[in-house]
Specification:
It is a single chain. By secondary structure, the protein is mainly alpha-helical. Among the domains are: about 35 residues, no CATH class; about 35 residues, no CATH class. The protein contains five helices and two strands, in the order ββααααα. A two-stranded antiparallel ribbon has the order 1-2. β1 and β2 form a beta hairpin.
């Protein structure tokens, strides 16, 4: 073990010999705190003015276009159960469920529908039995 001095807090700390050339801070907190206020290397640079930023931007675009769907992290065309064979009826039911659920959500949330329902139910008397079921 070797003694070294932290560049941030100036405390002495012990490290293993093989870390003698790379260790600079006694803890992760000291490392993070030493970087506060430091300006990032890419601050103010754009892909139009800096070739390094342009290269990074192009490589990320290519990566997400070819490999990953950024919304969920799956590869494009990824199947949840790749070996499972679905019947045509099952595939049709899944399709109907996906398509109808969005239409249902849109219709439930529409203001027109809520206004229509409130007008229809205005002044209506409900039985005690019905009110018990609802509540």
């Amino acid at each position: 073990m070797i003694k070294k001095e932290c560049l941030f807090c100036r405390k002495e700390y012990l490290i293993k010999i093989w870390k003698r050339n790379t260790s600079k801070y006694c803890s992760w907190n000291c490392k993070i705190n030493s970087q506060k206020g430091r300006i990032s290397w890419s601050k103010g640079l754009t892909k139009e003015t800096e070739p390094r930023i342009k290269k990074i931007s192009e490589s990320l675009k290519k990566y997400y276009k070819e490999n990953l769907n950024p919304k969920c992290g799956f590869k494009k065309g990824h199947k949840v159960h790749p070996g499972k064979k679905l019947s045509e009826e099952h595939k049709r039911n899944i399709s109907i469920g996906i398509n109808s659920s969005q239409k249902f959500k849109d219709s439930v949330k529409s203001k027109e529908r809520s206004l229509k329902l409130s007008k229809a139910l205005k002044g209506r008397k409900f039985s005690d039995e019905w009110l018990k079921k609802v509540n």
